Protein backbone atom coordinates (compact mmCIF):
# COMPACT_ATOMS: atom_id res chain seq x y z
CA UNK A 1 0.00 0.00 0.00
CA UNK A 2 1.51 3.34 -1.04
CA UNK A 3 2.60 5.69 1.65
CA UNK A 4 0.54 8.80 2.06
CA UNK A 5 2.20 12.17 1.30
CA UNK A 6 2.79 14.22 4.39
CA UNK A 7 0.26 16.98 4.85
CA UNK A 8 1.65 20.49 4.10
CA UNK A 9 0.68 23.18 6.53
CA UNK A 10 0.19 26.72 5.21
CA UNK A 11 0.65 28.03 1.66
CA UNK A 12 3.07 26.63 -0.85
CA UNK A 13 5.50 29.17 -2.38
CA UNK A 14 7.19 27.11 -5.05
CA UNK A 15 10.88 26.22 -5.34
CA UNK A 16 13.48 28.11 -3.33
CA UNK A 17 14.98 31.23 -4.97
CA UNK A 18 18.79 31.48 -4.84
CA UNK A 19 20.17 34.53 -2.94
CA UNK A 20 20.97 37.66 -4.99
CA UNK A 21 24.63 38.12 -5.60
CA UNK A 22 26.09 41.56 -4.79
CA UNK A 23 27.49 43.39 -7.86
CA UNK A 24 31.11 44.48 -7.63
CA UNK A 25 32.56 47.65 -9.11
CA UNK A 26 36.25 48.25 -9.39
CA UNK A 27 37.53 51.25 -7.45
CA UNK A 28 37.69 54.48 -9.48
CA UNK A 29 34.99 53.44 -11.94
CA UNK A 30 31.32 54.20 -12.24
CA UNK A 31 28.61 52.96 -14.53
CA UNK A 32 27.96 56.48 -15.94
CA UNK A 33 31.58 57.23 -16.96
CA UNK A 34 32.65 54.45 -19.27
CA UNK A 35 35.56 56.41 -20.82
CA UNK A 36 37.06 57.56 -17.52
CA UNK A 37 35.97 60.71 -15.69
CA UNK A 38 39.34 62.47 -16.06
CA UNK A 39 39.47 61.91 -19.81
CA UNK A 40 35.85 63.05 -20.25
CA UNK A 41 36.54 66.25 -18.28
CA UNK A 42 39.64 67.06 -20.35
CA UNK A 43 37.70 66.46 -23.55
CA UNK A 44 34.93 68.80 -22.38
CA UNK A 45 37.43 71.54 -21.46
CA UNK A 46 39.19 71.13 -24.81
CA UNK A 47 35.90 71.46 -26.70
CA UNK A 48 34.99 74.60 -24.73
CA UNK A 49 38.39 76.19 -25.42
CA UNK A 50 38.17 75.41 -29.14
CA UNK A 51 34.66 76.89 -29.28
CA UNK A 52 35.76 80.08 -27.52
CA UNK A 53 38.82 80.48 -29.77
CA UNK A 54 36.77 79.98 -32.93
CA UNK A 55 34.10 82.42 -31.73
CA UNK A 56 36.66 85.12 -30.87
CA UNK A 57 38.44 84.57 -34.17
CA UNK A 58 35.19 84.88 -36.10
CA UNK A 59 34.24 88.08 -34.25
CA UNK A 60 37.71 89.54 -34.91
CA UNK A 61 37.42 88.69 -38.60
CA UNK A 62 33.97 90.32 -38.81
CA UNK A 63 35.29 93.42 -37.00
CA UNK A 64 38.19 93.71 -39.43
CA UNK A 65 35.95 93.20 -42.47
CA UNK A 66 33.52 95.89 -41.29
CA UNK A 67 35.87 98.57 -39.93
CA UNK A 68 39.25 97.77 -41.58
CA UNK A 69 41.24 99.33 -38.67
CA UNK A 70 44.62 100.96 -39.27
CA UNK A 71 47.16 102.23 -36.75
CA UNK A 72 47.17 105.92 -35.85
CA UNK A 73 50.41 107.68 -36.82
CA UNK A 74 52.28 110.29 -34.75
CA UNK A 75 55.07 112.52 -36.10
CA UNK A 76 57.03 115.46 -34.74
CA UNK A 77 57.31 117.76 -37.74
CA UNK A 78 59.16 120.72 -36.29
CA UNK A 79 61.23 121.60 -33.22
CA UNK A 80 62.60 124.97 -32.17
CA UNK A 81 65.15 125.02 -29.36
CA UNK A 82 66.39 128.50 -28.43
CA UNK A 83 67.92 127.77 -25.03
CA UNK A 84 69.55 124.65 -23.61
CA UNK A 85 72.37 125.11 -21.12
CA UNK A 86 73.35 124.35 -17.52
CA UNK A 87 73.70 127.01 -14.84
CA UNK A 88 76.34 126.94 -12.11
CA UNK A 89 73.81 125.23 -9.82
CA UNK A 90 73.26 122.27 -12.21
CA UNK A 91 69.89 123.60 -13.33
CA UNK A 92 69.16 123.04 -17.01
CA UNK A 93 67.59 126.08 -18.65
CA UNK A 94 65.51 125.25 -21.70
CA UNK A 95 63.10 126.79 -24.17
CA UNK A 96 61.61 124.31 -26.62
CA UNK A 97 58.62 124.41 -28.97
CA UNK A 98 57.34 121.38 -30.86
CA UNK A 99 54.81 120.80 -33.62
CA UNK A 100 53.36 117.32 -34.04
CA UNK A 101 50.79 115.69 -36.26
CA UNK A 102 48.35 112.88 -35.47
CA UNK A 103 46.98 110.99 -38.47
CA UNK A 104 43.81 108.90 -38.24
CA UNK A 105 43.75 106.85 -41.48
CA UNK A 106 40.52 104.99 -40.65
CA UNK A 107 37.34 105.46 -42.66
CA UNK A 108 34.90 104.16 -40.03
CA UNK A 109 36.66 104.83 -36.72
CA UNK A 110 36.77 108.16 -34.90
CA UNK A 111 38.97 108.92 -31.88
CA UNK A 112 38.27 110.92 -28.73
CA UNK A 113 41.47 112.29 -27.16
CA UNK A 114 40.20 112.94 -23.65
CA UNK A 115 43.62 113.77 -22.20
CA UNK A 116 46.95 114.60 -23.82
CA UNK A 117 49.98 115.17 -21.62
CA UNK A 118 53.22 115.97 -23.45
CA UNK A 119 56.49 115.52 -21.55
CA UNK A 120 60.05 116.34 -22.55
CA UNK A 121 62.98 114.45 -21.08
CA UNK A 122 66.73 114.75 -21.26
CA UNK A 123 69.05 112.01 -20.10
CA UNK A 124 66.00 110.04 -18.97
CA UNK A 125 64.97 112.85 -16.59
CA UNK A 126 61.78 114.83 -17.04
CA UNK A 127 62.11 118.55 -17.68
CA UNK A 128 58.49 119.70 -18.00
CA UNK A 129 54.94 118.80 -19.05
CA UNK A 130 52.36 120.53 -21.22
CA UNK A 131 48.68 119.53 -21.21
CA UNK A 132 47.17 119.95 -24.67
CA UNK A 133 43.52 120.66 -25.45
CA UNK A 134 41.33 117.52 -25.74
CA UNK A 135 39.61 116.99 -29.08
CA UNK A 136 37.73 114.55 -31.30
CA UNK A 137 39.42 113.34 -34.47
CA UNK A 138 37.18 112.30 -37.34
CA UNK A 139 37.70 109.77 -40.11
CA UNK A 140 40.79 110.08 -42.34
CA UNK A 141 41.88 113.24 -40.57
CA UNK A 142 45.26 114.79 -39.75
CA UNK A 143 45.46 117.07 -36.71
CA UNK A 144 48.36 119.39 -35.92
CA UNK A 145 49.22 120.18 -32.29
CA UNK A 146 51.77 122.46 -30.65
CA UNK A 147 53.53 122.10 -27.32
CA UNK A 148 55.82 124.54 -25.52
CA UNK A 149 58.30 123.91 -22.70
CA UNK A 150 60.23 126.65 -20.94
CA UNK A 151 61.93 126.95 -17.55
CA UNK A 152 64.64 125.44 -15.39
CA UNK A 153 64.96 121.96 -13.97
CA UNK A 154 67.59 120.38 -11.73
CA UNK A 155 69.19 117.60 -13.76
CA UNK A 156 71.85 115.39 -12.20
CA UNK A 157 74.11 114.01 -14.91
CA UNK A 158 76.57 111.20 -14.32
CA UNK A 159 80.02 111.08 -15.88
CA UNK A 160 78.73 109.37 -19.05
CA UNK A 161 75.75 111.71 -19.41
CA UNK A 162 77.97 114.75 -18.85
CA UNK A 163 80.28 113.55 -21.62
CA UNK A 164 77.31 113.10 -23.95
CA UNK A 165 76.08 116.60 -23.15
CA UNK A 166 79.49 118.11 -23.95
CA UNK A 167 79.58 116.27 -27.28
CA UNK A 168 76.09 117.46 -28.18
CA UNK A 169 76.99 120.99 -27.13
CA UNK A 170 79.93 120.93 -29.50
CA UNK A 171 77.74 119.87 -32.44
CA UNK A 172 74.78 122.03 -31.44
CA UNK A 173 72.31 119.10 -31.71
CA UNK A 174 70.73 117.59 -28.59
CA UNK A 175 69.06 114.22 -28.03
CA UNK A 176 65.73 115.07 -26.42
CA UNK A 177 62.80 112.70 -25.87
CA UNK A 178 59.15 113.66 -25.99
CA UNK A 179 56.45 111.37 -24.60
CA UNK A 180 52.69 111.62 -24.92
CA UNK A 181 50.49 110.16 -22.19
CA UNK A 182 47.03 109.74 -23.66
CA UNK A 183 43.54 108.76 -22.63
CA UNK A 184 41.53 107.90 -25.72
CA UNK A 185 38.23 106.31 -26.76
CA UNK A 186 37.26 104.98 -30.16
CA UNK A 187 33.95 105.64 -31.89
CA UNK A 188 32.70 102.74 -34.01
CA UNK A 189 29.54 103.96 -35.70
CA UNK A 190 27.36 104.98 -32.75
CA UNK A 191 29.32 102.88 -30.24
CA UNK A 192 32.01 104.39 -28.03
CA UNK A 193 34.60 102.09 -26.49
CA UNK A 194 35.99 102.23 -22.97
CA UNK A 195 38.98 104.50 -22.34
CA UNK A 196 42.50 103.18 -22.93
CA UNK A 197 45.86 104.75 -22.07
CA UNK A 198 48.40 104.43 -24.88
CA UNK A 199 51.80 106.08 -24.68
CA UNK A 200 53.78 107.63 -27.50
CA UNK A 201 57.55 108.09 -27.50
CA UNK A 202 59.46 110.33 -29.90
CA UNK A 203 63.25 110.33 -29.94
CA UNK A 204 64.35 113.72 -31.28
CA UNK A 205 67.60 115.27 -32.43
CA UNK A 206 66.96 118.96 -31.93
CA UNK A 207 69.38 121.64 -33.19
CA UNK A 208 69.96 124.68 -31.00
CA UNK A 209 68.84 127.88 -32.72
CA UNK A 210 70.93 131.01 -32.25
CA UNK A 211 69.83 134.42 -33.53
CA UNK A 212 67.35 132.83 -35.91
CA UNK A 213 69.77 130.27 -37.35
CA UNK A 214 70.36 126.63 -36.39
CA UNK A 215 73.41 124.40 -36.41
CA UNK A 216 71.40 121.86 -38.40
CA UNK A 217 67.94 121.34 -39.84
CA UNK A 218 65.40 119.40 -37.82
CA UNK A 219 64.20 116.24 -39.51
CA UNK A 220 60.64 114.95 -39.07
CA UNK A 221 60.61 112.06 -36.62
CA UNK A 222 58.12 109.19 -36.50
CA UNK A 223 56.99 108.21 -33.01
CA UNK A 224 56.50 104.76 -31.50
CA UNK A 225 53.15 103.82 -29.92
CA UNK A 226 52.58 101.52 -26.96
CA UNK A 227 48.91 100.42 -27.03
CA UNK A 228 48.76 98.73 -23.62
CA UNK A 229 45.20 99.08 -22.31
CA UNK A 230 45.62 98.83 -18.55
CA UNK A 231 48.37 100.50 -16.51
From TrEMBL:
The chain crosses the membrane at residues 44-67. It is found in: Membrane. One of its GO terms (biological process) is defense response to other organism. Its main location: membrane. InterPro entries: LEA_2, NDR1-like. One of its GO terms (cellular component) is plasmodesma. This is Late embryogenesis abundant protein LEA-2 subgroup domain-containing protein.
